[in-house]
Design brief:
- The complex is a heterodimer of chains A (about 350) and B (about 800).
- Chain A is α+β, with helices and mostly antiparallel strands.
- Chain A has two domains: about 90 residues; about 240 residues, Bira Bifunctional Protein, Domain 2 (BirA Bifunctional Protein, domain 2, 2-Layer Sandwich).
- Helices cover about 40% and strands about 20% of the residues of chain A.
- In chain A, the strands form two sheets. In chain A, strands 1-4-5-9-8-7-6 form a seven-stranded mixed beta sheet, with helices on both faces.
- In chain A, a hairpin with a 5-residue loop joins strand 6 and strand 7.
- Chain A is rod-shaped.
- The mean pLDDT of chain A is about 90.
- Chain B has about 800 residues and is an alpha+beta fold.
- Chain B is built from 23 helices and 36 strands.
- In chain B, helix 9 runs antiparallel to helix 12.
- Classes of the chains: A alpha+beta (about 350), B alpha+beta (about 800).
């Protein structure tokens, strides 16, 4: 009996190994363990045996039945997956047919590089408790010059060639001009606030200047101002170092040297150690090892006074950061005129920022 | 301004540092040094040689092989192309390794196959003249082997080129003596001030009892702040001595003759410009300083005819104007080789007036540049005596006639400016501890007087710093800060109060728009010029009146002479750039347009969003419309997109503008007000910009949206417990029907259980009809909708559309 079962099982293994079709497998299942299957018949024949035999053959027969059952189930599962996969094959797509392989693809757009850096600067200052202000491009002489301690005929006006809507020598009361710096937002900011306060003001500024690869008549600055009690020059140095280290993503060596701007006293030019040569001298830093980056200083007492802040009680610092230069340094952009060109070949290079 | 260290050494001992270090010290403490040049070092290497033999170069017609001797018996040979070379001539020779002022360093090289052991030089190559022809002939007695520095009586020097702009506020630094005082303070080295009282006496003792042949007189109100005059006879006009010429050249001026050179020398040394007249060319016995009072032509020393206006201050004699005060002398009274009697003027002028006149004439001279900085009248006398000292030294036969004459307001008893401060205040503003002793040292070394009373300091500002430079305590603090060096002050965080700061509504809105458009609409942000030209505006808005444009008076070109009243022209211009490279693109700008203001305001600036979609093949209008809807939904703004209506003029385009597309043109209302437009450009407009294809534009005025923070309008509804039933049906519609009409018909049925009804598919059935499949969704939050309700709802929808001409497709 047991021998017979062994032969039957071997026979089963042989037959099933040839099958892949679900129906054939089911037929084979019936042949062996169906009601009249070969194994089932053995099991049915057990009752005719003596107890001793029955106890011997019974477990073996059941074991073989279970084995067959499992093999069949396994085979059926495989057959089903294959059947589904065949279906999937019918609907197979070309996975290399991605939009980036096509002309006119619009994967995603991108921001203008000036915006990118401006937002970065905004975020740095926001995180340090500075408000972000905005101001008009068309300003008047008072906010752009007089309230910043630059009266008419002051030589400092020579440094900032101004676009005028009214003749600077005429007698119109509020002579209109295009702001030459974002410093006029200082005046607006001070009028609307009581100390202590701190804010930055990014935006476009205008100079009556012939354009070439490194000069633009329209460019971008960020003004910054902090006013409070007992503010010091070393506080200013602190903020400038933090700002520049964040922007350049590394510790930047800075130096402050005297610089003359009528609305600050003392006034400074802030230089950073040349990022290209590390200070040994190259063409970018004109062999000096340092690159002039931003003017800053302690707010001039007259400027505070004119805007209604008591200079005996409060003081503060202000700075102006040129954004275009920063962007050009960061990406090695060779021509400042690209910024306002509207040319997408330029702008699209910054989309993965 | 060029500063010679060799010259400075007359007044202060400068430590033996490299040229670069000296420049850097000055940059950090005082003013920016733009360049540092070492001169004369090459001359030390170059020496006198005698030519022994000349033979033709075997391979070049115009080159010779020249053998020469340094006088030590060892002959050398160079290849030389100079035509004046001859045997026996003594010339300068530069050996291998010499580095020339123009940067050339002599290296061993072969010229046409023959090794040249250095170079025989011309005056130009030595840096002595700007051009030359042939080798410098040193004559037969030049000592062989002597180096050229000794031979030419030259000196090695370091020249600092100081940025003039960084000296704008420092009238005292426009001469070497003032710079020397800075170095003395920086290097803690004493200032050798030779201009003492005894020095003054040694010169005033030369004055005589004679009547001065020429005296100055100020006539009425003019820009003169004080005028000294001195008469000197017996001068001999000649070339200046070499040392004086050398210093002028080092400082960037060309030597002319001894008298003119002395006046320039004193200006470069003390910072006071002066003028020397040939007295024989002055008629009468006085010079009158006055406003010209009339307009006339005047020829200045540079032989240019210039227009004098009544407000200009001139110096006249009986016959007319001689000098344009503080700016330049006239051609008719200058010193010439014939001059023997001179009248020396040292004066001071109102800075503002000098600036006005020189700006008007476009004539900025070494003199006007200095007077513009507000000089100190008290320094004029010293400059006069220094001039006299040099004239007496260089023209030993010269003698003063009469005494020093002065015209102008009294200079005696002018109260010096005193500013109160304290060590504590200085340290607190700098944020750095500095000893009282060091503070006093710095002030004293810079010429300030310091009196201490308790904690307080009374600082007397020297007159040459008090003209406008030092006015406040803050100015004093700067003096200490810069000399101590900001590099030596460690950064320090202030202790500030903590309060929440958020990005303003405007910036938040702009950021939201930007990120949505780049990520959702795949558009690129661009920037265009806010300044445009009349031509561009007329190309875009032909026929519109341009009178209210905001025009710039001093524009640089016609293309950028006014503010744009609309962003449309700028966007079209930018599109024209991009159609050359791309067959489709999407871009946007958040920019401004500028209109003339109302009432008191000169201008009104509108913050606007402009979007452009372009496609060469088919209109991108629907794509743009979708982007616009999505954007406004994303921003949570209450908006409507409606048909353009001629009755309500859109403020973003000129009324009756002909260049919008007849069908692709909708208005955007925001919070009930017309605040935007979405249109495709008319092909006629595009052709003017040479754009072939389809271009759609959207402009939204952001001003009113920016003012308030965006509101979170999200309302949560509990999820329904009851199922939602949907119903699809297909209707026939004639081609050209607007699906918007069909949907609004459906919505008119006002079935309150209908959650939504939208289009599933549109299928072109034949040439006349489209089959449009719609799907309506029904639900009730309170119960499951029964079959009867659904049946009647379906009937209402189908019948409603059928009646309106959209029959059910069977």
């Amino acid at each position: 009996m047991i021998e017979k079962l062994g032969t039957v099982f071997k026979q089963f293994e042989k037959e099933i190994s040839l099958l892949t079709n679900k129906a054939d497998i089911l037929n084979l299942k019936a042949k062996y363990i169906g009601k009249k299957g070969e194994v089932s018949e053995v099991l049915q024949g057990l009752k005719d045996l003596i107890l001793e035999e029955r106890q011997k053959v019974g477990p073996v027969a059941n074991e073989i039945k279970d084995k067959i059952q499992n093999i069949i189930q396994d085979k059926l599962n495989k057959a089903e997956i294959e059947e589904i996969n065949d279906g999937l094959k019918q609907n197979r797509v070309d996975v290399t047919r991605v939009e980036s392989a096509f002309v006119n693809n619009h994967e995603h757009g991108g921001l203008h590089p000036i915006t990118l850096i401006q937002q970065e600067v905004e975020n740095i200052f926001l995180s340090m408790g500075f408000e972000v202000l905005d101001g008009p491009h068309i300003e008047n002489e008072h906010n752009n010059f007089i309230a910043l301690n630059i009266p008419a005929d002051h030589p400092a006006r020579d440094m900032q060639d101004t676009f005028w809507f009214h003749s600077p020598s005429g007698d119109v009361e509020k002579k209109a001009l295009l702001r030459t710096h974002t410093s006029c937002v200082q005046i607006r900011g001070m009028k609307e606030r009581r100390p202590p306060f701190r804010f930055i003001a990014p935006g476009k500024v205008f100079r009556c200047e012939r354009t070439d690869a490194s000069h633009e008549m329209v460019f971008h600055q960020t003004e910054g101002m902090l006013v409070g009690e007992n503010i010091s020059v070393t506080n200013l140095i602190y903020f400038m170092k933090v700002l520049l280290s964040e922007i350049f993503k590394k510790d930047v060596e800075v130096r402050l040297r005297p610089g003359f701007f009528p609305f600050v006293e003392p006034g400074f030019e802030l230089d950073i150690k040349c990022l290209i040569c590390g200070g040994t001298g190259c063409s970018v830093c004109k062999q000096v090892g340092w690159v002039e980056l931003l003017p800053c200083g302690m707010v001039h007492p007259s400027v505070l006074q004119m805007s209604g802040i008591d200079p005996a009680k409060y003081n503060g610092f202000a700075f102006g950061l040129g954004l275009d230069r920063l962007v050009m340094m960061r990406y090695g952009i060779d021509d400042i005129r690209h910024f306002h060109s509207g040319d997408l070949r330029f702008v699209s290079q910054f989309k993965s920022y | 301004m060029k500063i010679s260290i060799e010259w400075l050494n007359d007044y202060v001992e400068i430590p033996k540092l490299s040229a670069k270090e000296i420049g850097e010290k000055f940059t950090l403490a005082t003013a920016e040094v733009e360049g540092v040049v070492e001169t004369g070092a090459h001359l030390e290497k170059i020496c006198v040689v005698e030519i022994k033999k000349i033979t033709q170069h075997p391979d070049a017609d115009k080159l010779n092989l020249v053998t020469f001797s340094l006088g030590k018996g060892d002959d050398l040979q160079v290849v030389c192309g100079a035509s004046n070379v001859k045997v026996g001539m003594r010339v300068p020779y530069a050996p291998i390794g010499t580095s020339f002022p123009d940067g050339l360093i002599l290296t061993p090289k072969k010229i046409r196959g023959i090794v040249s052991e250095g170079m025989l030089c011309s005056t130009q190559e030595l840096g002595l003249t700007e051009d030359s022809s042939g080798l410098m002939d040193l004559g037969p007695v030049a000592p062989l082997g002597q180096n050229m520095l000794t031979y030419l009586e030259e000196k090695k020097d370091i020249i600092l080129d100081v940025d003039n702009k960084s000296l704008t506020h420092r009238p005292d630094l426009w001469g070497h003596f003032g710079i020397a005082r800075e170095f003395a303070t920086i290097f803690k080295s004493p200032l050798k001030d030779r201009f003492t009282q005894s020095w003054e006496l040694s010169l005033t003792s030369k004055f005589t009892k004679d009547r001065s042949p020429i005296t100055p007189r100020i006539d009425g109100d003019c820009s003169c702040l004080g005028y000294y005059g001195l008469n000197v006879d017996g001068v001999v006009v000649n070339d200046s001595p070499r040392w004086l010429q050398r210093r002028l050249i080092a400082a960037g001026l060309r030597p002319i003759n001894n008298i003119v050179d002395i006046s320039n020398y004193v200006m470069l040394e003390l910072g006071n410009p002066l003028h020397i007249f040939d007295r024989d060319l002055i008629s009468g016995s006085e010079v009158i300083i006055k406003k010209s009072g009339a307009s006339y032509k005047f020829i200045t020393l540079d032989e240019v005819e210039r227009e004098i206006v009544p407000a200009d201050t001139v110096i006249c004699d009986k016959s007319g104007a001689l000098v344009l005060g503080g700016i330049m002398g006239g051609l008719n009274c200058g010193v010439s080789t014939k001059t023997t009697k001179i009248f020396i003027e040292v004066a001071n002028w109102k800075a503002v007036d000098i600036r006005k006149t020189s700006t008007r004439l476009g004539l900025r001279t070494d003199s006007s540049m200095r007077f513009e900085k507000t000089l100190d009248t008290l320094m004029c006398k010293r400059a006069m005596l220094r001039t006299l000292e040099l004239i007496l030294e260089i023209c030993p036969k010269a003698r003063v006639v009469g005494s020093l004459e002065y015209a102008g307001p009294s200079l005696i008893n002018k109260n010096p400016l005193v500013i109160k401060t304290s060590v504590e205040k200085i340290c607190s503003v700098l944020g750095h501890q500095i000893s009282a002793q060091e503070i006093k040292r710095i002030f004293t070394s810079l010429g300030f007087g310091v009196e201490e009373s308790g904690n307080k300091l009374q600082v007397t500002v020297p007159s040459y710093r008090a003209t406008k430079d030092v006015e406040f305590e803050a100015d004093l603090i700067e003096e200490i800060g810069r000399i101590v060096g900001y590099d030596n002050m460690p950064p320090l965080s202030p202790s500030l109060c903590v309060k929440p700061i958020l990005l303003s509504p405007t910036y938040t809105l702009h950021r939201k728009i930007r990120s949505f458009l780049t990520l959702n609409s795949s558009a690129y942000e661009i920037m265009t010029y806010p300044l445009v030209g009349k031509d561009l505006l007329e190309k875009c808005f032909a026929g519109e009146n341009r009178d209210s444009d905001l025009v710039i008076l001093n524009s640089l070109s016609n293309e950028h002479d006014r503010m744009r009243p609309s962003m449309i022209p700028s966007l079209l211009e930018a599109s024209a750039v991009n159609v050359k490279n791309l067959s489709s693109f999407k871009m946007f700008e958040i920019g401004r347009s500028y209109l003339s203001g109302k009432n008191e305001d000169f201008a009104s600036e509108r913050s606007q969003l402009g979007i452009v979609f372009f496609d060469k093949e088919s209109t991108p209008y629907i794509d743009l419309l979708n982007s616009c809807e999505r954007l406004l939904n994303h921003l949570g703004i209450n908006f409507q997109i409606i048909n353009a209506n001629n009755k309500f003029k859109n403020p973003l385009i000129p009324s009756d503008w002909a260049w919008t597309h007849p069908f692709e043109n909708l208005d955007i209302k925001i919070m009930g007000k017309s605040a935007g437009i979405i249109f495709s450009c008319h092909p006629m407009l595009l052709s003017k910009f040479k754009i072939k294809g389809h271009l759609s534009v959207m402009i939204i005025d952001l001003n009113e949206i920016e003012e308030k923070p965006l509101k979170d309008k999200v309302k949560y509804k509990p999820l329904s417990k009851y199922p939602c039933s949907t119903f699809d049906w297909t209707v026939l519609a004639k081609k050209g029907s607007a699906i918007g009409d069909i949907l609004s018909l459906v919505n008119k049925t006002k079935i309150k259980e209908m959650e939504s009804c939208l289009i599933v598919d549109i299928f072109a059935l034949d040439d006349i009809h489209d089959a449009i499949t719609l799907r309506a969704a029904f639900s009730d939050p309170e119960k499951t909708l029964d079959g009867e309700f659904l049946k009647s709802a379906r009937e209402r929808l189908v019948n409603g559309l059928e009646k309106a001409g959209y029959p059910l497709k069977v």
